[in-house]
Amino acid sequence: MKSFKNSRLLSLLVIFVFLLGILMPAQTQAVGAKVHYVALGDSLAAGELARPADGVRTWVKGFSGIIADHFEKKGVLASYTNKFAMSGYTTQNVLDDIVSNKEVEGKKLQDTLKVANYVTVTAGANDVLQVAQIDIAKETVSIDPLKFGATNSKIQSNITSIIKEIQKLNPKAEIYISGYYNPFPYLSAAQLGQLEQMLNLLNGGIKTVSQANGATFVDMKGIFDASKETYLPNPRDIHPSLEGYQLLANHFISAYDSKIKFQFEDVPIGYTYFNEIKFLVENRVMTGVTSTQFGTKQSITRADTAQALYNILPFEKSIPANPGFSDVPESHPNYMAIAKLTQAGVFQKAEKFNPDAPLTRAQMAKVLTLSFQLKATTSSSFKDVKTGDWPKEFVDALFSAKITTGYTSDNTFRPNLTTNREQFALFLVRSANNVLATVK
Which end of the chain has fewer surrounding CB within 10 Å, N or C? Predict the structure, then answer.
């Protein structure tokens, strides 16, 4: 349990902020699972600012830094980097970096992506700019339609590969692919008309392949039209102002916040565990078994248990050692969660993890006790959990913390029964509430 002991205070603080969300009004965005954010792409992700009249190149936090600040203020940012984003990068550059496992400041990109659960990609504009004839002084932009067509096809192919490469490394990552705004709003009306057509084709292609491969497309078309002087102040520079970067960030944040919608048919308003399940789902701690079913009565699997705990608890940012389970390869969608929980001592090393096996109530008592460092201060009197039984200390811990009362009808805990998903949601929130109570 070294990993948790070293971050006990952090653990309590994170849970404290997490629990505040339960008490907030429904319209308030609550704090949820940790965000590991990686921004890939071109100068927009790197943060190149529109140059002033003297032409001095300036770098700011950009839209990705603003997004990171947003997560930080919500108390959910676990890690963030835009160090792999480079000015002038094309889709091919981004793809090559992932495949070659580029290293920056001692960190390799593939390792970074394995941890990331939020990835933004801004790439494609430079692909087009490379085949464009641009004369800013004369305010003309010319792009050969044949060259553009070939380039646009290559962009779509590369973005498809980028998404798939990220998904291979981390199937749980949420990937957001950016569309593009008009970088030349000061052109003549005739020039703008031609540019508009190509911009529509560029964004349409990016949107199509993004959605087809499970990524979220973030539409940026026309976002600066209301005030080009404010958002793109230098007619000779395609980069935004600070206000422009804020607007870009807002679109990414809105896309992220609106993605989760609570609409499970088996958890209607007024349902016994509605508040707990709704909170955990909307804050990406747990997910439904389908888009319309939470699976309230289904047994929760050991893999889903690990993922939910990983989503709540704070961990060091390092890549964990492979725990060596023969049935949990690194390509497994819950590999990172299982590896981290095993490293922390919540799960024990063995030949197999049995990720799809249901979690028993005895196992549930153990993993919650270890994860939240619960203490047994009272001995339970359940008829089916006796002194000497291995679950006894863990069941006593849950009983002492009033996380469970067992089955009062016959004074049993039923340790060998499986834990269903609604029960686990309830016990998870109660465990966190117990930790909050210890620091009040």
Answer: C
Q: Cβ distance 105 to 173 under 8 Å?
A: no
Task: Using the CB atoms, write b or e for 11-45: b if 16+ within 10 Å.
Answer: bbebbbbbbebbeeeeeeebbbbbbbbbbbbbbbb
218: three-class secondary structure by DSSP: strand
Look at residue 244 and tell me if it is in a domain.
yes
Q: Residue 306: is it exposed, middle or buried by C-beta count within 10 angstroms (0-12/13-18/19+)? A: buried
- Looking at the fold, whether 77 and 122 belong to one and the same domain comes out as yes
Q: Is the dihedral of CA 42, 48, 49, 54 positive or negative?
A: negative
- CATH code for the domain of 43: 3.40.50.1110
CA angle 248, 249, 252 (to 5 degrees): 95
Chain Cα centroid distance, residue 362: 31
- Domain tally for the chain? 2
Averaged pLDDT in 10-residue chunks for the chain of 440 residues: 43 44 36 82 93 77 95 88 96 98 96 94 91 66 81 96 96 94 81 79 94 95 91 88 95 89 90 92 89 95 95 78 95 91 94 97 96 92 95 96 94 97 95 67
Give dist(CA 253, CA 68) in Å, integer.
Answer: 10
Q: Tell whether 224 and 293 lie within a shared domain.
A: no
Domain of 210, in residue numbers: 33-257
Residue 398 domain flag: no
In a domain, 20, yes or no: no
Q: Look up the pTM and report it.
A: 0.76
The set of residues, in sequence order, having a beta carbon less than 8 Å from that of 203 and lying 6+ positions away, is: 179, 180, 219, 220, 221
Give dist(CA 399, CA 403) in Å, integer.
6
63: nearest Cα among 340, 253, 323:
253
Is there a domain that residue 149 lies in?
yes
Could you give the CA distance from residue 420 to residue 440 in angstroms, rounded to a whole number?
A: 31
